[in-house]
Structure formats: C-alpha cells, structure tokens
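Bumping with the actual sequence this time:
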Amino acid sequence: MKLTTKGRYAVTAMLDLAIHYDDGSVTLGDIAARQGISLSYLEQLFAKLRRNGLVDSVRGPGGGYSLSRSPSEISVAQIVLAINENIDATRCGGERNCQGDEPCLTHQLWEDLSGRIYQFLEGITLAGLVTKPHVQQVAARQQARVHVVMPSRGVS
C-alpha cells in the first residue's frame, strides 16, 4: 500500500475543513493558501469528496465547502477510499492471483497488513485529529501566516 500525494492532500484538506468546522463554508482558495496545495488539484479532490458524500458545497458569495457531517463521523479511511486510494498491500490488488491464477506464498501476510492499515485509518476521525496539540499548533501558525500574507481580506 502506498499513500500517494492525492491521499495525503485529501486528508490534509479535510482536516483543514474540520478545524474550521464552526466557521461555515470554507473556500478552496483559503485551504490552498493555508496548506500550500494547488487550487486546481483541490478542485479535483473535492469533486470526488462531494460525490462520495463527505463534503457539501455552497455556491455564490460566502460559498465554499463544509463537511457533510460531524468531524467525529468521518474517518481517515473514508477519505482515502473516497478519492480512490488503495488500502491494499497485496501485489495482486486482492484478486488472489499473484502467482498465475493462485495466491502467492506471502499473499495472506499482505492481506492481513491491508486489513490492519484499514482498521488503523478507520479508527482515526477528523475530530480526533483536531484535538491533537501539534495539529492545533500547526493550524494556528498557518492561520497567522495567511493573515499576514493576505491583509486585504479584512481579517487581522
């Protein structure tokens, strides 16, 4: 299993939404500025997250995205799966045909690992991450940096 940039960015962006959960809709531009992720890349990710029911979108002035449910109800595994990331450590993609039409010698080992990775990620919610001291520290630093860089937004 390899978590790609797509998976890392999706989790990061969703955590950003969770941090700002009580602020209403958040623009992708704000997430891009805080997290250093390309706006066009975020647009692609959020299309998938919306299709999979993890975010809601609001159009027009004051629009943006918000979590579709409480941060305590969204796990990291749900985010990773929503953007089509693979939580499978087998080389056959779980098809059990790694050696011709049969499982290889270590298939069960990698299948068990995949299950543990999924359980681990399923056990971590956005709400749990938001409460972590290091997440709070980084979020505060990012917010302060964005306010300094964009003083014309009317936010101090």
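The tokens above came from a reply further down the thread. The beta strands are 55-58, 64-67.
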